[in-house]
Amino acid sequence: MMSQKMPEGCMVPRPMKIESVTDETYNVRTFRLRPTDGNGVEYHPGQFNMLYVFGVGEVPVTASSDPYQSDYLDHTIRAVGSVTNVMYKLKKEDFIMIRGPFGTTWPMENMKGKDVMVVGGGIGLNPLKSVIIGVAKKRSEYGKLFLLHGARTPQDLLFTRDYEDWRRIPNSEFLICVDAGDDEWKGNVGVVTTLFDRFKFDPDNTVALLCGPEVMMYFTAKELIKRGLPSSNLYLSMERHMKCGLGFCGHCQTGPFFVCKDGPIFTYDSIGKFFGVKQI
Amino acid sequence: MVAYVVSKDQLAALFDKVQALGYEMIAPTIENGVLRLGPMKSSKELAKNVATMQSPGKYHTEPSPLLFSFTHGPDSPKSFLYPAKRELWKMTVEDGGFDVKETSCEGDRMAFFGIKPCDLASIEVFDRTLMKGEYVDERYVNMRNKLAIIVANCIEPSGTCFCHSMGTGPKAKNGFDLSLTELSDGFLVEVGSKLGDQILSGFDKRPAEQDAIKEAESRLEAAEHKMGRTLVVTNLKERLYSNLESPAFKEIAKRCLGCANCTNECPTCFCSMYQDIPSLDGRSTQKQVTWDSCFTYQFAQVAGGHFRPELWARYRQWMIHKFAYWIDQFGVFGCVGCGRCITWCPVGIDVTESVKEAQKVQQQ
């Protein structure tokens, strides 16, 4: 039988102090959180934390910070629900508490030596940012980096302050598009799959990481498979309602999977067959 | 397995003996015409000579010549091992920080006296969910490890029972301390553990003779054929996986109220809600865990959308979870065949029929 005790930090949230707040878009902010107990943070790209606001509630969010340091966590929040609307208004020196990290990770090790394609739809770029930072920091360990980001409007493009740095990552291609442009928009218009005609990749040597609305991931996965990418090299990060992060509350179930502990990162091989099933 | 015969008038004494070992007794009693499972102070409250009459959406009790061979009511061990409401921790604002107190997960030693084989099986299903994975529910583990189980085998199944199909009854095979099978004269008592031995030590009993063992066997074999419901479970997981999009779910959902009675009654349903209960002055809050149900509208809703907005998809989630997903998750069915979800469904939806319908419609 496995251990009969819960690992530390699984049930009771740990206070973190907000060190800085950065506006990303009109409704997205990044909070840099530092532990108040003097200990570091442990986290692998793709894993999520349950972020807790005192007296309000918890939400599962993947960190967006540099995975090669353990002093702080960056968490990027869009104000959409009852918890995130409160969290969004928190200020420097306020507290956000965390439980975690939970769940599976992006395949940082398995990607070594391969080309890496990162496709983020909207706020879905958030869980991929630590991959971009990680690949850029250990540039020689990975092949070419393809960075694709689609958003609804130019105002919804995420992490725009980082684009200059990302464009300078050696051996990389960075493409963005929006569903609907405005008068000033000169870039690509269309869903993210329309970007695939604008560059070439080697399907036999590429690992693709997707995160975004399920319909976006569904069509992106289909397009990549059509272009020869093996489904075993296709990874995606799933979103579901979560209460516990431990596989007890049942809310995140998708087919036979608990997204919290079997995911949130899945290979398309495993979860793909449930993708087209309505309201699974 | 060592077996004895105990006379029928010793039933209360057996209860008293377990109680005297320091256990909080959880046992069946009759309350407002319904068999309830709950904490019991005195063996005088034990339900006796009743039968539970169950059919889809219907339940009542009747007098029975059998002393202690009724099936069950709405309560199952889940209510005590994984209560409907409990506190995880309490947090208070302090100068420059927070003070957190985890709620104690200590509790009295409990003895289930007279639960049924299906309910015993449900505890084993729960073990897989809460104490055999990467994470454990410490309160559950705590209660579970000091539990005493006296199971009463079923010789008179109810009209909604199908434990024989699910392989969990009518006879409990293991996992108990003592098992009782009612005979025409007395009970056959089988010993399943050291604690069982301890309970029977010094107790008025005689070694079971072949006749008693044979009578118990034949009564339990007869019970296998008296199940009110049946279900073919061979390759059921595979058959359901290939019918995920069966139109039957939409038909069933026309009758389903989405009331969540089935998941509350189910002895293995574990889904729960974690919520904050803040104090009025805003200085403290407690984290509360309550039972939840995959039938509620909000269950799979997120701020950005809804994964199961329609009731048919929520019925499918529950049914496929029980008979297919559960096997992939925990290695067993999530259904023990107790039939409670059929009996306590206000509109009498019969899960054994639903499982059949989900496969049938697709083939046409």
In the residues of chain A, how many domains can be counted? Answer: 2
Spatially, the strands of the biggest sheet of chain B line up as 3-2-8-9-10-11-1-12
- Estimate the global geometry of chain B from the Cα principal axes: globular
Distance between the termini of chain A: 32 Å
**Annotation field: number of helices of chain B:** 13
Please identify the structural class of chain B as seen in this structure: alpha+beta
Q: Give the SSE string of chain A.
A: EEEEEHEEHEHEEEHEEEEH
Strand content of chain A: 25-35%
Percent of residues in helices of chain A comes to: 10-25%
Radius of gyration of chain A: 18 Å
Low-confidence parts of chain A, pLDDT < 50 over ≥5 residues? none
Q: What is the CA–CA distance across the termini of chain B?
A: 49 Å
Helix and strand element order of chain B = EHEEEEHEEEHHEHEEHEHHHHEEEEHHH
State the oligomer.
heterodimer
Instruction: Tell me roughly what share of residues is in helical segments of chain B.
Output: 25-40%
Chain pair forming the biggest interface: A-B, 46 and 53 residues
Which architecture of the largest domain in chain A does the CATH hierarchy give at level 2? 3-Layer(aba) Sandwich
- Give start-end ranges of low-pLDDT stretches of chain B: none
Total DSSP helices of chain A: 5
Number of strands of chain A: 15
Description:
The complex is a heterodimer of chains A (280) and B (364). With 280 residues, chain A is an alpha/beta fold. Chain A folds into 2 domains: 14-101, Beta Barrel (Elongation Factor Tu (Ef-tu), domain 3), CATH 2.40.30; 115-274, Nucleotide-binding domain of ferredoxin-NADP reductase (FNR) module (Rossmann fold, 3-Layer(aba) Sandwich), CATH 3.40.50. In chain A, 15% of the residues lie in helices and 30% in strands. Chain A contains 5 helices and 15 strands. Chain A has helices at residues 82-88, 126-137, 163-167, 214-226, 268-271, and strands spanning 14-23, 28-35, 48-53, 57-62, 73-78, 95-102, 115-121, 145-151, 172-178, 188-189, 206-211, 234-237, 253-254, 257-258, 265-267. In chain A, the strands form 3 sheets. In chain A, strands 10-9-8-7-11-12-15 form a 7-stranded mixed β-sheet, sandwiched between helices. Chain A has a 6-stranded antiparallel β-sheet with strand order 4-3-6-1-2-5. In chain A, helix 3 links the parallel strand 8 (145-151) and strand 9. The two termini of chain A are 32 Å apart. The model of chain A has no long low-confidence stretch (mean pLDDT 95). Chain B is of the alpha+beta class and 364 residues long. Chain B has 2 domains: 3-224, no CATH class; 236-363, no CATH class. Chain B contains 13 helices and 16 strands. In chain B, helix 9 crosses helix 11 (311-330). The longest helix of chain B has 20 residues, at 311-330. The termini of chain B are far apart. The mean pLDDT of chain B is 96. At the A-B interface, strand 13 of A face strand 6, strand 7, strand 13, strand 15 and helix 11 of B.
